[in-house]
Predict the structure.
Amino acid sequence: MLYKRRILIVDASNSARSILFKELQQRLADIEIIACGNAREAITACRRYEFEVITTGLSLPDVDGYAMIDDIREHGKNKHTPIFVVSGDTPTQIDDVDDYTRAITAFFDKSEGHKALVDFICDFLRKDITFNARILYVDPSATSAAITTSILQKNQFNFDHYKDPQAALEMLREDLATHGRCSYDVLITDTTLDQGMNGYELVQSVRNDIGLDYLELPILLMTVEPGSDEKTDFTGIFGAGSNDFITKPVTDERLTERLINLVNIKRQNEALQG
């Protein structure tokens, strides 16, 4: 994969840098973690890569942390990247600040420990994805839709819900005509639909009739849990063109995890396309 999500850690302490690196690596296996011990290394990395998040201390061995942040903001790829400053003598949240700290997204009190910092970064990345994601959801069942939409609302996903698969297909066509691309990040569809079409057929229509591939519109298929004497129909699920599937009843954690993964697929493809 040519595009890779990355986080930059800047910390003069070898032990603190190593602990944070390992903890983030365990929690965010799909994101590359780059760790630097000084400002020169960090500036070089920032001119080469675009990062999802940058976390830094202010006491660096070669350049003042604020000066490093100014340089990052002034040059190239990370002008708008969230930067978290980890310090023992700064507030944990800022409102109106001076010219230096205007470039800082948030302060984090290092006395809270590295695990709290990792939680903070993970929560930030998760909220950033869910808040900006746009979901097209197709399900005629009032009960199933009530559960799923409550999860989407709770996690701040933007979504449009359709009971009629034909109406959803028409929405996709209008969306393509309006934007010149698919503005939805993920399509969720149940296998059981109305209007003479099931979920497999809806997926096939999206892929073959509308022409949106796995990267342009990732699709999550919702299925029932197979009985004790049944097997999951992997051939039907993936043969139709789905990226992934989830069995009902869905839970908040499982659905959100799958959606974030699929949104990342869409975003990575968009980054490759420029």
